[in-house]
Specification:
By secondary structure, this protein is of the alpha+beta class. The protein is 16% helix and 21% strand. The strands form three sheets. It has a four-stranded antiparallel β-sheet, with no helix packed on it. A two-stranded antiparallel sheet has the order 1-2. Strands 5-6 form a two-stranded antiparallel ribbon. The structure holds zinc ion (ZN) (2 copies).
Length: 155
């Protein structure tokens, strides 16, 4: 039995819903059709470009958030990486922020994207040791699992 209220809540008119904060936008996921809400209130970042549930994206940005790419292909969440390692004030190397690696299924371009606050952590964990590899990016494998868990769950 489908809940009619739940269906309405996810309908295409949701953009205009008064329950959303002013300026909040949403888009339908190209992969799982979930209605993804954009904006800082939900994502913790202004430039959300992927689905919170399945992490798929659309090849629409040349630079994050600019929506200038004309490709329009779906972008597969291919793996994870850490943002470049930084040294802290004591000169000790610090592991960088966890990032998603997307690859366009149409043109094969790879992009690295920030994880949003409401992305499904279980889906992200599933990408550890995905087997994806690409020149120039150190894609995480089994050895990184505990650090990924620490960044996602704090344990
Ligand atoms: Zn999705
Ligand atoms: Zn593309």
């Amino acid at each position: 039995m489908v809940d009619a209220r739940a269906l309405r809540a996810l309908g295409p008119k949701d953009h205009a819903s008064s329950s959303l904060a002013p300026g909040t936008m949403s888009f339908e996921c190209v992969n799982c059709h979930y209605l993804v809400r954009e904006g800082k209130r939900y994502a913790g970042t202004e430039n959300r470009n992927h689905c919170t549930k399945c992490l798929w994206s659309l090849h629409a940005d040349l630079r994050p958030g600019d929506r200038k790419a004309l490709c329009g292909g779906k972008m597969n969440p291919a793996g994870l990486t850490f943002k470049r390692v930084k040294k802290d004030k004591y000169g000790k190397e610090k592991v960088g922020e966890l990032m998603l690696v997307h690859q366009c299924v149409k043109c094969l371009e790879v992009s690295i994207n920030r994880i949003a606050a409401d992305d499904d952590p279980v889906e992200i964990m599933n990408l550890v040791n995905s087997g994806f590899s690409v020149e120039g990016i150190s894609v995480l494998d089994e050895a990184d699992r505990s650090e990924v868990r620490r960044q996602l769950f704090g344990v």
